[in-house]
Design goal:
Blueprint (H helix, E strand, L loop, with lengths): L1 H13 L6 H32 L2 H28 L2 H24 L5 H30 L4 H29 L3 H20 L15 H13 L2 H16 L3 H12 L4 H25 L6 H20 L3 H29 L5 H12 L3 H42 E4 L7 E3 L2
Antiparallel strand pairs: 1-2
Helix pairs in contact: 2-3, 2-5, 2-6, 2-7, 2-10, 3-5, 3-8, 3-10, 3-14, 3-15, 4-5, 4-7, 5-14, 6-11, 6-13, 9-13, 9-14, 9-15, 10-11, 10-15, 11-13, 12-13, 12-15
Length: 425
């Protein structure tokens, strides 16, 4: 009985989002589905590298997969505001399941080609352009504002636990049975999240339609709103830089494993799990701190330290040292992402939240095509180590510039509201 009470107290104090029935359905479905997603991520990267042997072509796959974020994120935000988010998620998750099963069929029948992988990656990117901001904006509907940051940190913990288990299990499956099983199991894992969504009962927030308010005008209104808010502007600028220069692990780690360290699938899976392990512990730490709300200072500090550790990864010449640096990097990636995400959602007004999160998707995931292409190009010319150092140095310089520019124009936040910097007259 005491153990049960202790468990209930732990959940209530540190994982309060799980006390919401709707969130439990959503969270448990994600726990299963995200493991499959990470299995597909490493399986696809290794498959492309095996088919082509080219880091540049691997980077091009990442560019194609995330290009729809760049092209359509702003339009997606307007659409998401107008329809129930639960319905949108059921559609996007079903399409993602079909795409994964199609890729598994191509591999099993030995008809897979680089061009086919590229087309499927493009279709998945289009689907995720609607899925990602919808999931972000859906959190507040199922937990409310008070538990929003706790829900975001739990989502991050789940994502990064899957980042540990998925690559490790996926590498094992590739070594024993082939990459096709990674795609098949990922496709089947979507059943869990689709079932969870059908069980959720909530009152959706749908913005009222306005006469004479077209797509372009609503996109413009959202951008004007963001540009007029210093906290949103600085946060999104940092997210743009980090999203472009730092989040290229899916491109650089397989190249680091295969070409720089001259090792095989098992080491690749372990290195991917290392960054997931660090991110998982970072997410757990944030769950214990979530009652205090997001911290602007953590966004700034973590962006700098993340950049420094990217440079250190590039200097490592053994898998053990590289794995250790990747684990520490994972901690700072989650501190940055969780605080940035929470800040944007909690600070934005209800009528602008989906559009703010669509811009977040644009600058975070939509910047990935450029980042993946540059990382693939750098790895092709200088190796993965040189690419890590180049990306880290660029990220460090640009983040420092943004921090300095905004510090000159605002004094530190007031104790009563850590998110709001005081304006200088």
């Amino acid at each position: 009985m005491n153990l049960r009470l202790a468990g209930e107290r732990l959940v209530h104090n540190n994982f309060h989002a799980l006390t919401h029935r709707n969130y439990r359905y959503f969270w448990f479905g994600q726990c299963i589905s995200l493991i499959g997603t990470w299995m597909q991520n490493i399986g696809q990267a290794w498959l492309v590298l095996t088919l082509t042997g080219s880091p540049l072509l691997l980077g091009l796959i990442g560019t194609v997969q995330f290009l729809p974020f760049t092209l359509f994120s702003l339009f997606a935000g307007v659409i998401i505001d107008k329809y129930p988010k639960k319905r949108i998620l059921i559609v996007t998750q079903t399409v993602s399941m079909c795409l994964a099963l199609t890729l598994s069929l191509l591999v099993f029948t030995d008809t897979v080609r680089y061009g086919y992988v590229m087309v499927l990656a493009l279709l998945l990117g289009i689907t995720n352009t609607f899925d990602m901001p919808t999931r972000q904006a859906f959190n507040i509907e199922i937990v409310g504002k008070d538990d929003l940051m706790n829900a975001i940190t739990l989502n991050s913990a789940t994502f990064n636990l899957a980042r540990i288990l998925g690559p490790a299990f996926g590498a094992l499956m590739m070594a024993l049975l082939g990459a096709g099983w990674c795609f098949l199991l990922n496709g089947l894992s979507f059943i869990a999240v689709i079932y969870g969504l059908t069980r959720i009962q909530t009152t959706p927030y749908v913005r009222e339609k306005r006469q004479g308010s077209g797509f372009l005008k609503e996109i413009k209104d959202g951008i004007v709103y963001i540009a007029g808010d210093r906290l949103l502007t600085q946060t999104l600028l940092l997210v743009t830089i980090v999203g472009t220069m730092a989040y290229n692990f899916s491109i650089l780690i397989p190249v680091l494993t295969k070409h720089d360290l001259h090792l095989q699938e098992q080491t690749y899976g372990i290195l991917m799990s290392c960054i997931g392990l660090g991110s998982f512990f970072g997410a757990l730490t944030m769950s214990f701190l979530s009652k205090r709300g997001p911290r602007r200072r953590l966004i700034l500090i973590s962006s700098i330290l993340l950049s420094i550790f990217l440079i250190l990864i590039g200097l490592m010449r053994s898998p053990v040292a590289a794995g250790a640096c990747l684990a520490v990097t994972g901690v700072f990636t989650i501190l940055f992402a969780t605080n940035s995400n929470s800040t944007l959602q909690m600070h934005a007004k209800d009528e602008y939240r989906a559009r703010v999160m669509s811009v977040y998707s644009l600058v975070f995931a939509g910047s990935t095509p450029l980042g993946n292409f540059l990382a693939g190009l750098a790895a092709d010319r200088f190796g993965a180590g040189g690419a890590f150092m180049l990306c880290g140095a660029t990220c460090l310089i640009l983040c420092s510039i943004v921090i300095i520019v905004f510090r000159k124009r605002a004094v530190p936040a007031s104790p009563g509201n850590p998110l709001e910097p005081k304006q200088v007259a």
